[in-house]
Design goal:
mainly alpha, 14 helices, about 45% helix, elongated
Amino acid sequence: MDYLQISHLNRPLTPPIHAVTTSSGIGSSTGFSNEIPKPGEEAANQSLKNELLGFIKKGDWEAVLCKYRKCKDTVQTAKITRSNETALHIAISYSRIDIVEELLKIIDAHVIREMTDHRKENPLHLAALLGQTKTCKLLVDKDPELIGARNIDGETPLFKAARHGKKGAFYALHPKCHIAGSDIKHEIRHCKRKDGNTILHVSILEEYFELAFQIINLYPELMVYNNEKGQTALHLLALNPAAFKSWRDLGLLDDFIYRCEL
């Protein structure tokens, strides 16, 4: 059996899309069920899933929207690809912001956080990865809790944006990271992942230096934060001679070292 798989980096213009057979139902408004679907229900759910796949294959998004309006409770969390992506994920992958807007008018806000793929990434993770600023804003406005969700590596959508150098998405998400306590000046909960690396670490590792310098201004605490290897962002900069030179040439190095010594 062939499967639909979405590539977020090198997507062909007309990717093949085929139905995927699973043993589970299509999903529900809660995303979880303790009931084993009856054979007839399972077949009906699979039929709906196949219909959605067929519509997407043809580029018939109006038919997808019609199906979502008619069968919302059944299809809104339907995972229809091998990577467990939903129609919302696919619309984001295809940069169909118009379809994203229409789907968000239909889908219940609280179920979006349940729309996680095989890496536990919700649609906001994907929008951040692709640098879709408007989509990021639409999703956070629909459900502000999405911004705190973590994938299997412990990365938040803000982290994904920084890691891939998507400045527009990063600047859209940063103001939405609410400060958790009155004694906290800069909230860094969203800025770290499981291995201890921060958004500053990864922006330097990936050589997104302009973004890294903005991160220093927004989150100065991160300059002295160690990852699991005991490395600060300055350590990583020193390990990359080309990056070190770039920062010096840009006039950023002296200021960065000065801030680290404060």
